[in-house]
Amino acid sequence: MTLSQSPEASVLVIGAANIDLIGVLDENLHTHTSNPAHIRFSFGGVARNVAENLSRLGQPVRLITAVGDDQFGAQLLNQVTGAGVNTNDVICSTRYSTGSYIGVINRAGELQMALDDMHVIREITSQYLRDRYALFKDASLLFVDANLPKKTLRTAISLAKRAKIPIVADPTTTLLTHRFIPYLKDFYLLTPNIHEAAIFCDQVIDPTDPEQALEAGKFLVSKGVQIVIITLAEFGVCYATSETSGFIPAIRTEILDPTGGGDALSAAVVFALFNDIPIDDAVRLGVSAASLTLKHRGAVLPDLSLEKLYDHLSI
Question: CA angle 92-90-264, nearest 5°?
């Protein structure tokens, strides 16, 4: 289940990049009025987060996303380029503003509600990707998130299959999960949370029951996914392949910011598989990456490293 690659080959990451505005409530949420909170600003977006995490771990990465021709877009590009990500093919739109995400978090670190404006992602068209087929041929792997328009997603998957590179997919949100259903057989690695997994399986899954999550993972493997990793928030992570399956409890963590934990897990697992680490240990490293990220105010840990992941691994 490990991945093969040449040292020069980049992971091609396609999907969302945006500005995160996160408010952590001082007290319980009250509707129809202003709520006291601690508010922070950072860079986010599933694809952007995964790209930065991979780069900080030492993996070459090329990012295709879209930002607005505005101050936030310029800041985002400067930041992710500074983290070592190749952004030569990022689209700078004059029609849409840079994507944004507003999250409201309670004192327990749980998401209460969120808003997002991802209209700029429409700029990534099927033709734009077809014109860059060479990037697929030169890549070691494709990572996609479900923010992509349906036609663009279909093209990305088709080009990856034509280039014979594995595909890693993150459903992003329950509202977008259905976009991946036609492509399950094409995915090397799929990383849904328990609610997204329930949509794939078309059944109710108890988020506190790892056995039900394991069965969901095995079901998705039966549909053609090679590796399935299902996150259960504070209850841990389940994973399944055609050869093995397992459950890893979450590392006890004080959650300062719930954004980015799943993206860190995905990146750490991919990096581990590239380095011939068995899937069982790769998932443990992913759990370590998620835990470290949840303790950080921001979507990506700026000093992420494989050594840091092993140091934090206590399960």
Answer: 125
